[in-house]
Amino acid sequence: GGGVKILHLLPSIDIVIELIGGIEPARTYILAALKAGKNVVTANKDLIAVHGKEILETARAAQKDFLFEAAVAGGIPIISPLKNSLEANHVTEVMGIVNGTTNFILTKMSQEGMEFSDALALATELGYAEADPTADIEGIDAGRKVAILASVAFNSRDQASGCCTLSGGRR
């Protein structure tokens, strides 16, 4: 695409921030940016969960940074400590709430006896849930985040595909 070609024409660009979302064309653009000698920042958990290994290997080969801290745990730094600060330690488990929307809904249901549909409606009204909350309530978002955390914490190459969703479907 034309957007990728411009990277070669603008040598003053040091960092590319991917805000497209989804898998393609984001993957193609990120790989092209790294190969063109640019550092890349993204919060695209869908892409990282599926193609993180390929992108990290491309970044390593290009000696460029591929940063994705915001893809997991929002404003809580977890990726950097796992990659950098805890290298000398042997991480045996990672525990935490990986999906705030689901946590909100389950808390309302368990502590206040709220029905699922009402808790979801409230989460949407308060801006916690997306207009289409499928990825949250089906466990897809949590699966992607767990795949990313596992790849960093345990050098795992597991991908989010193949995770069972809460409704029993396979992704």
How is the main sheet built?
A: 3 strands, parallel
Radius of gyration: 18 Å
Within CATH, the superfamily of the domain at 2-96 and 139-153 carries the name NAD(P)-binding Rossmann-like Domain
Number of helices: 8
> Can you give the mean pLDDT?
81
Beta strand count: 3
What is the top-level CATH class of the domain at 2-96 and 139-153? Alpha Beta
Q: Structural class of the secondary structure composition?
A: mainly alpha
CATH hierarchy: architecture of the domain at 2-96 and 139-153? 3-Layer(aba) Sandwich
What pattern of helices and strands is seen along the backbone?
A: HEHEHEHHHHH
Strand neighbour order, sheet with most strands = 1-2-3
The third-level CATH topology of the domain at 2-96 and 139-153 is Rossmann fold
Helix content: 40-55%
Percent of residues in beta strands: 5-15%
Any overview of this molecule?
With 171 residues, the chain is mostly helical. The protein has a domain at 2-96 and 139-153: NAD(P)-binding Rossmann-like Domain (Rossmann fold, 3-Layer(aba) Sandwich), CATH 3.40.50.720. It is 49% helix and 6% strand. It has helices at 2-9, 26-35, 45-62, 79-85, 100-112, 116-125, 134-137, 140-153; strands spanning 15-18, 39-42, 66-67. Strands 1-2-3 form a 3-stranded parallel beta sheet, covered by helices on one side. Strand 2, helix 3 and strand 3 form a beta-alpha-beta unit. The longest helix has 18 residues, at 45-62.
